[in-house]
Amino acid sequence: MNWFVYAFVCALSVAIADALSKKALINNDSYLVAWVRFGYTAPLMVFIFPFVDIPRLDGVFFIITFLLLPLDIIALLLYMRAINISPLSLTLPFLSLTPVFLIGTSYIILGERPDKTGFIGILLVTIGAYLLNIRTIKRGFFEPLKAIAKEKGSVLMIIVAFIFCITLNLGKIAVQHSSPIFFSIFYSFLLSSFLFLIVSFKTKNIFSKIVSQPILFLFIGFSTAIMMITHLKAISLVEVSYMVSVKRLSLLFGVIFGAMFFMETNIKERFLGAAIMVLGIILISVF
């Protein structure tokens, strides 16, 4: 199957998991829902495991995996907190900053400067972020930017986007030293186990709560499983930057789901802003 199809399915799966997670956050804390994302994914992976070849694993695989683990846990907890306290349409678009951060870290570490297309892409991402809160411009030109800082969920998602610029590349290395399906299964079990230890300290009556909404939780787990498999399959077939440019279509799906299921307001301006940010990602990543 073409890498684009995997990346597109991944984008849709991310948006569905985000919308379902936000629904689950109505009655549950962010720690529990963070665990659900992978705790309910791991059992689904069991059915796949007998059909998966176990690759030879080297030291690089284990080093990279355990570097990924704390970063992914921090990112996931912040992610859940962000979509819990703020609208999907004001948080998810900021994931578009990941490729911008990738350009920044490449310049700092390697001295690589973006070309004209890259600069235009950065400009579009900035314009898109500005448009997310364009309604506040009547109070002053800089108000849309100030509104970002005032929205705690947006700030948290910006931090998540920066962490993702690191984990995306680490994840690709882990896949290169194993296989996409094997790593999906292995990592979902590992991540859910460590998250459970954290959640058990933060959530009272955890065993009753993790089965309190089984149907909703199962759908979250299934969506996350599809997201993980298609994500890792896509980056095994193409450069990370190309995959990310398609995967970030999830931002547009997320804005739509925010309007459909959570009655979020000002959707036209937020969709326009998110669409321009996605266009910026494409210019940065593909051209």
UniProtKB/TrEMBL annotation:
Keywords: Membrane, Transmembrane, Transmembrane helix. Coiled coil: none annotated. One of its GO terms (cellular component) is membrane. Residues 3-133, 152-285 form the EamA domain. InterPro entries: EamA_dom, EmrE-like. Signal peptide: none annotated. It holds the Pfam family EamA. It comes from the Bacteria. The keyword Nucleotide-binding does not apply. The chain crosses the membrane at residues 59-80, 92-110, 116-134, 155-175, 181-203, 215-234, 240-263, 270-286. PANTHER family: ACYL-MALONYL CONDENSING ENZYME-RELATED (PTHR22911), SOLUTE CARRIER FAMILY 35 MEMBER G2-RELATED (PTHR22911:SF137). This is DMT family permease. It comes from Candidatus Scalindua rubra. The lineage of its organism: Bacteria, Pseudomonadati, Planctomycetota, Candidatus Brocadiia, Candidatus Brocadiales.
